[in-house]
Specification:
Layout lengths: L1 H29 L5 H4 L1 H30 L5 H20 L6 H17 L1
Helix pairs in contact: 1-3, 1-5, 4-5
Keywords: Membrane, Transmembrane, Transmembrane helix
């Protein structure tokens, strides 16, 4: 179950980086009408780096899930990841009125982590 949750987490990371870069970050950074602080080169770099740091964080969580799957008796990681994804899933679903696909990954991963921690 944790390996499946890790795979979902890696997939959401790829989707976040690739789609987010194409549909949000690149157009945002390229927009000359943005306020000066956002248009500044350093700010543009920070926006892009922060966006992709989220993906790297999810991949680190996926690695921890794989480690936890290989280390019997470690429940802290799946419990923490389940809690995070149980918050992110509904938030993504409700805030975007279902238009943001993140919840499709977060909610199943939360369930898988919860079941693994309980089992």
């Amino acid at each position: 179950m944790l390996i499946a949750a890790a795979i979902l987490t890696v997939l959401v990371g790829f989707a976040h980086s690739i789609l987010g870069e194409r549909r949000l970050i690149a157009p945002l950074i390229a927009d000359p009408a943005l306020p000066v602080p956002v248009g500044h080169r350093t700010t543009r770099l920070i926006l892009r780096a922060a966006w992709h740091a989220t993906t790297l964080s999810w991949w680190a969580l996926a690695a921890l899930l794989v480690w936890s799957a290989a280390t019997p008796g470690t429940r802290a990681v799946p419990i923490a990841v389940a809690a995070l994804f149980a918050i992110l899933g509904p938030f993504s679903l409700i805030a975007s009125r279902g238009r943001h696909p993140g919840w499709v990954f977060f909610l199943p991963a939360a369930v898988l982590c919860t079941l693994s921690a309980l089992g």
